[in-house]
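Meet the record:
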Amino acid sequence: MEVKKERFGMLSSGDAVSIFTVSNGTMSFSAIDYGCCITAILLPAAKGGYDDIVLGYSTLEGYIRNKPYFGSIVGRCAGRISNARFSIEEKCYTLTRNDGGRHCLHGGYPLYGKQLWQAEPISGSDEAGIRFSRISPNGEQGFPGEVQLTVSYTLNKNNTITLRYEAHTTKTTPISLTNHTYFNLNPAGMQDDGSYVSVLNHQVQLLASRYAEVDALLIPTGTLVPVAGTPFDFRTPKLLSQDFAQLKNGYDDTWLLDADGADDVPLAAVVTEPTTGRTLRIYSTQPAITMYTGNFLNGEQGKNGDVYNKHSGVCFETQHIPDSPNHPAFPSVWVQPGEAYRHETQWRFTV
């Protein structure tokens, strides 16, 4: 197990940004301390060398822009919050209206994915990685409470990347942290124009019997709908493309996971790319998973001259259901002083 630290660039403030690369001898991943962004996951290629199976940028300048949130941490509360506000004991808290000028998306400004985090390597014989930390001040993004945040990404000998989140607050506040990595398990299948092939040939299984109904602006209505007989039924593995004709733009939806408490870190999803045979198994303690099929990618210039068009990548964001602060019937997103917010997500790769 090896962790290597290198300089990645410098912010306008003069602060240096570092990139950490973690390897187990078979595969590796890289992440930067700016936004805790995962910048690369390298898996062995059939014809030798490695394939990078996540979307991103080659330079810091790309991550400073990073409108698609490639690989970044998301918080304080992932997803959309309706009308950019919520209440605690009749006190209303107002957030950034950074989604269509009406709603709050991924916590609002300043984005967690646009902050420089403290970072230190984690070294061990069986697992190695990076630990990131920062303090979110009381009132940051409009949320109450000073929150101490710790995020770690580790790789073990069994080709599993584990994402661990921990937070402690001084006031009652909603917390839902996630990672916004876009996967494409067959990045070698480039098109003639240099753009990525669609991920719609990926086969997906979601261990979820209900999904969150949303309105036209992707805000949950508060109703959890059975997936049976709908395009949202992934209980049996199917291609992402199978029911795409029934959708307006693609998947940008959240499923309540069926975890029964039997496993400490339950299986949430299985993703397979038929051409390469690669499989990603996702395990998580989070109550829900958002699947986003890159519906708003439009010619984004990525790593090594790659072009990311619509559906070039797919995100699997383990988190709470969006707009949970405004829906008491959803799994509780509230963290109290003296409590610890702790969650874990595992990405297990068959390489």
